Amino acid sequence: MEALPILIFIVGPPLATFLVSVIYFRAAEHYSPGTRLLVSLHGVALTCWFIVAICMNVLGFTGAKFQFVFYAALFIPSALALYSIFRFEGGAIHLLQIVNLVCALAMMILAPLIVGGL
Fold first, then answer.
1. Where do the structural domains in the chain lie, given as residue ranges?
2. C or N: which end of the chain has fewer Cβ atoms within 10 Å?
3. pTM for this prediction
4. Which residues are CB-neighbours of 103 under 8 A, at least 6 positions away?
5. Residues 98, 15: Cα–Cα separation, whole Å
6. 80-116: buried (b, 16+ CB within 10 Å) or exposed (e) per residue?
7. 65 φ/ψ sector (left φ>0, alpha ψ -120 to 50, else beta)
């Protein structure tokens, strides 16, 4: 039970960003399949970004040299979120990007610890 808050802090942000993508995907039913996928992929990309951090640690790819590449990879979910904001028609749903931003910041705090081998 002692590890439960830590587990929630580690699993919570990626799960939340994934759920934001699911909400966008379900709300974008009137778009073509390709556009629907692109406007909803930002949260999945953030989740994958974080899972890669855990995999890098497990596989032994740790250290400062990997942190730069890891942060540079944040460009992909950021670009997808911007695309979603400009392409997806629906004002209130974009408030979910605040959830993505908060979760991304939390994952950015955890990622150097995981990728850095701490």
1. 4-115
2. N
3. 0.85
4. 12, 13, 14, 16, 17, 46
5. 15
6. bbeebeeebeeeebeebbebbeebbebbeebbbebbb
7. alpha
Show the CA angle centred on residue 15, arms to residues 9 and 11, nearest 5°.
30
What are residue 72's phi and psi, to 5 degrees?
-60, -30
Number of H helices, E strands in the chain: 6, 0
* Among 38, 51, 45, 55, CA closest to 17: 45
Six token digits for residue 104: 């991304």
Tell me 73's DSSP state. T
pLDDT tens digit string along 58-117? 788 777 777 777 778 889 999 999 999 999 988 899 999 999 999 989 888 877 776 665
